[in-house]
Amino acid sequence: MSCIFCASVLLPIEPGTAGSSSHLFKGSSKHDKSSSHDASPKQASSKHARSATRDVAPSSQHVKLAALGPANLNLKLTPPSCDPAKFRIALDVGHTAESEGASSARNVPEFAFNLRLARQIEEKLKAEGFSETRLLVTAGKAKPSLFKRVTAANDWHANLFLSIHHDSVPDSMLEKWEFEGKKSYFSDRFSGYSVFVSHNNSDFNTSLAFAELVAKEMRGQGLQFAQQYTLPIMGRNQHPLLNKETGVYSYDKLVVLKSTQMPAVLLEAGSIINRDEELKMDSPERRDVISSAVLAATRNFCGLPEPFLGPL
What we know:
Blueprint: H1 60-63, E1 89-93, H2 110-127, E2 133-136, H3 142-156, E3 160-167, E4 175-179, E5 182-186, E6 194-197, H4 204-220, E7 241-243, E8 248-250, H5 255-258, E9 264-271, H6 275-281, H7 284-301
Parallel strand pairs: 1-2, 1-3, 3-9, 6-8
Antiparallel strand pairs: 4-5, 6-9, 7-8
């Protein structure tokens, strides 16, 4: 991981359809949670993310904001107006095929969960007119892949960056069990989604505005946010909670959030190390709920009216 930029050839971004390789940037993965980065905030210290290289927890000056809501941050969260047909959304698939991020309780790599969900989100966004949505699938090992995806998004001049992940826990919280004859690890202690932004992003206010919209839509779908990130037991993975009602956290030093030159948000869609929630995250129904929430948040972000469904 000492050579970050060497051997990082980026494929051109080209239009394509969900699931086709023609429109995928070669990108990153997470469940090698050793995929440090992009890695979701959760697993930098997880057993399966041992190589995760996320940066350390935010500075103490930001920790003071942990339990405050947006009103207390003196931010005006007014979404911009945008033309869906021209609005460039970089939909980042967390981790890579080489560094797959965390492992689920049933030994499925996080990258597989991330890719499936991201593809469904892409499909919904394009169907609603956001034709410039592009999957960012990065190749390579953990930390170098973080810089590749940031470079790809910046070079494309994306208007919005959304990184998709699925959560786990630090190694210290893992318990052993056996699944299909193989030694596995799980933690049923925590569950839920979480949304992250960085104060170091060049447009923190807009990042926070979109994060709030995503989180509120997730809550509106009846989902609960993960609350463990404020606990001391999380160690270096502890993060300030910016809104105690929606589950928006700050992760100031995360590369993909701080180095992108556009508003950037990371979504931990749910916990795959929790055995019950893993089954839900693996279902088409849950992917539909989450992708619909992201779509609704994006429409709201762009100031678009709710679609008319006709008389009931």
